[in-house]
Design goal:
This protein is mainly α and 424 residues long. The chain is 50% helix and 6% strand.
Length: 424
């Protein structure tokens, strides 16, 4: 099994370690080719042009000059001699020429986009990877702060189309000896990077770290979870959606608004409720909010409504595919009056009359949605015993299901309860 992991991981490690070396170009490059950008301007934006633009100016003046250039001529800089020319992104040029602050200023003021992959001299350049390789941590911070949705979005690493996420690169052993390694890893984790998110090839960063013998990654990732469960900082905030998810959600929102404007969204109640549940499961909360407003106009609707065998909104948030659960929407629903202590009937043992009852914490354990588990604990849901029992421990159930992050939440709650009530 271990060797099979190594075999599957080898192309990824090879791609990561050889990023700045020329790659064999595929017949159809899957990354943007800046050489396809045509300019009708008489001005040639090359390295000499940039140097003249920046020469002798203070930081604020350098930023204004660069921002004006990008607005007038675009972000691409031509380099190389005639016949061997290539185009490099302005932030890449600034990073390579040790002008990190200028690149940061363009990014923070949204003059340019971040998390950008493009073809360059037979290979692929990516601004995050370049900043990581050169130790430009200010730029990495700016990327995370200006566009957190890029954190869990796969980007192209090679001309063959291999895709990775930012945190999966840190799961390899390429950067492990860099003095900024833990800082960058913690920045990504704090911003919501998911160490368990599968890449397009099915591998997860945690599996990559194990296969690379990168125990530092495993230790830092586990410590981050422990810090969240102990301090609750960031615990009740959703993991950021990927770029693709954001685009899909916005498309749904736009279509909904257009339909509502033209036709009044004449959905039957059951269908509308079903779509609302799907939006919550996906973590598309903006779309879910729009549908919730419409649902409240139906007399049949209540905050805890569920079809026979279906899900309520709070159940959907508990089972959400968002890493850790859709904790933001769960909190919103509880604030609106949803009952977090509700017991759910599930199929019992054949021949027995009484169905089994479970609570929402047990439901969250199915996906190890530890953030929702934490919310349910502070909302008064019993975390000590399974419903109807004074012997079967919730912690034991979590461990049996390998819901280890949720188990840590429950363990912390038990320790806190014992501290507050030492005689109980």
């Amino acid at each position: 099994m271990f060797m099979s992991y190594i075999t599957r991981l080898a192309p990824l490690i090879l791609a990561a370690s050889s990023l700045l070396m020329p790659h064999v170009a595929s017949a159809n490059s899957v990354v943007f080719d800046p050489m396809s950008v045509e300019s009708n301007d008489d001005v040639v934006v090359d390295s000499m042009y940039i140097e003249r633009l920046l020469d002798g100016k203070e930081e604020s003046a350098r930023y204004l000059s660069l921002a004006s250039m990008v607005k007038a001529h675009g972000p691409w800089v031509t380099i190389g001699a005639t016949g061997m020319q290539a185009k490099i992104h302005i932030t890449s040029y600034l990073i390579q020429t040790k002008r990190e602050q200028e690149a940061v200023n363009l990014l923070k003021n949204r003059d340019v986009e971040g998390w950008l992959s493009y073809s360059f001299q037979g290979g692929v350049f990516n601004d995050f990877v370049m900043a990581l390789d050169t130790g430009n941590i200010k730029y990495v911070k700016a990327l995370i702060e200006t566009n957190p949705n890029g954190i869990n979005t796969p980007f192209t690493l090679t001309t063959a189309g291999d895709e990775v996420t930012p945190i999966s690169l840190l799961a390899t052993d390429k950067y492990i000896d860099k003095d900024y390694y833990e800082l960058v890893l913690r920045l990504l984790l704090k911003a919501g990077a998911n160490p368990h998110q599968p890449l397009p090839n099915g591998m997860t960063p945690m599996v990559i770290a194990s296969a690379s013998n990168n125990m530092k990654f495993v230790r830092v990732a586990q410590a981050h979870i422990a810090e969240q469960t102990e301090g609750k900082k960031g615990l009740f905030t959703n993991t950021p959606l990927s770029q693709a998810q954001m685009i899909e959600m916005q498309a749904i929102v736009d279509a909904w608004i257009e339909d509502e404007t033209k036709n009044g969204s004449k959905y039957q109640f059951a269908k509308l409720h079903e779509i609302w549940i799907q939006m919550i499961l996906k973590g598309y909360n903006i779309a879910a909010d729009l549908m919730y407003e419409k649902l409240t106009t139906y007399p049949k609707f209540s905050i805890d409504y569920r079809d026979n065998g279906g899900l309520s909104g709070l159940m959907a948030a508990t089972l959400s595919e968002v890493y850790g659960g859709n904790v933001e929407y769960a909190k919103k629903l509880i604030d609106l009056g949803a009952d977090p202590t509700v017991l759910i009937n599930v199929q019992g043992i054949p021949g027995e009359e009484e169905p089994i009852k479970i609570n929402l914490i047990q439901l969250a354990l199915e996906k190890d949605n530890y953030k929702v588990v934490g919310l349910l604990i502070v909302s008064g849901v019993d975390f000590l015993f399974l419903p109807g029992s004074d012997e079967l421990l919730m912690l034991h159930s979590a461990m049996e299901q390998k819901a280890f992050k949720s188990a840590e939440m429950i363990r912390q709650a038990i320790m806190q309860s014992m501290k507050e009530n030492p005689e109980s």
